[in-house]
Each structure stands twice: as structure tokens, then as C-alpha cells.
Amino acid sequence: MTNTLATTLQPTLVHTLRMPIRWGDMDAMGHVNNTVYFRYIEQARISWFDEIACTPDPAGEGPVIVNAHCSFLKQLKYPGEIEISTFVGPPGRSSFEMFHQIRMVGADGNPGVLHAEGGAKIVWVNFPAEKSVPLPAEICKLLPPQKRLPPK
Predict the structure, then answer these.
(1) pLDDT at position 87, please?
(2) Highest-pLDDT range among 24-28, 54-58, 147-151
(3) What is the Cα–Cα distance from 51 to 92, expressed in whole angstroms?
(4) Are 63 and 56 in contact, with CB atoms under 8 Å apart?
């Protein structure tokens, strides 16, 4: 990963999702619109949340995004298939970082080339109270441990 945060936090790969590029994902410039990359990342994030039974409960608690970013490195075009790799960083009290890499797969001529990378900070919240709360223990178990710096 070239993202500075991702490199600093040494994230762990937790999920991989393949999906087709759809004709409607393209814009007038003939490539996938920048906003669609966020949809791809969203789908990967939700697929992992579904896989770990982390569906938000509007009457209780769940994950929300407090920021999101994406670096567009190489154009994506229809037709094609992409693979989105999802990585997570170590837990904080109520949050953790997620990172994603988007690559083409198949017969694009350059399979595996990184086309985009992005991520988001995920905060666990109590929805009715509209406040952050500590991450559940079962979520923390899925995240890589904090790396402690040796004492000076």
C-alpha cells in the first residue's frame, strides 16, 4: 500500500470482493466516474460487515464512517472486472481504520495493477444517543493488535 496511514498502521487483509464494472458506471469521459469508486469501496466494506455479522442496528449500535478518501491512480473502463481488497488497522477505543485497494482482474492486459486505493475511519456508535461507544470485543478480535513501541 502506498497510503501513508496504511503503511504506518500495518493493516491486515480481511476481505476480497470481485465485481464487474457496469456500463452505467462510466461517465461522459468514457471512464468510471470518480464517485463510483466510493460505491465500489462501500460494497466491499458492507460485504465484510455482512460476513462478520456486523449489520448496523438503527435502534442500537453499529459502525459509521467519519471520513473517507480515495486516490485515483489509473482509469477503470467498461468492460472489466475489479477486485477490491479490504484491510483493517488496529482498534482504538471506539474506532478503526479501513483501507481498500482496487485492481483490475482478467484480460485487461495488466491484471493486478493498482487502479485506486482509499479508505475510511469507522467509528462505533450508539445510534439513539448519537455518541461513540467502545468497540465490541467481538469486533476487536477481528482487528490486528496494536503495535507497541519499545520503551526508551
Answers:
(1) 97
(2) 24-28
(3) 22
(4) yes
- Cα separations (Å) of 54 from 7, 27, 79? 26, 33, 32
Using CA atoms, how far apart are residues 111 and 55, in angstroms rounded to an integer?
Answer: 32
> How far apart are the C-alpha atoms of 8 and 30, rounded to whole Å?
35
Q: Can you give the pLDDT at residue 55?
A: 83
Q: Which residue has cell 455479522?
A: 53
Between CA 84 and CA 45 the distance in angstroms is 9
Q: What are phi and psi of 84, to 5 degrees?
A: -110, 115
Hey, what amino acid is at 124?
W
pLDDT over threshold 70, residue 7: no
Q: How far is CA 56 from CA 14, 98, 116, in A?
A: 19, 17, 27
Indicate whether 150 pLDDT > 60: no
Burial class (CB in 10 A: 0-12, 13-18, 19+), 144: middle
**What is the C-alpha separation between 80 and 146, in angstroms, rounded?**
38
Say if CB 142 and CB 124 are below 8 A apart: no
Interval 40-52 mean pLDDT: 96
| % of the chain at pLDDT higher than 70 | 87
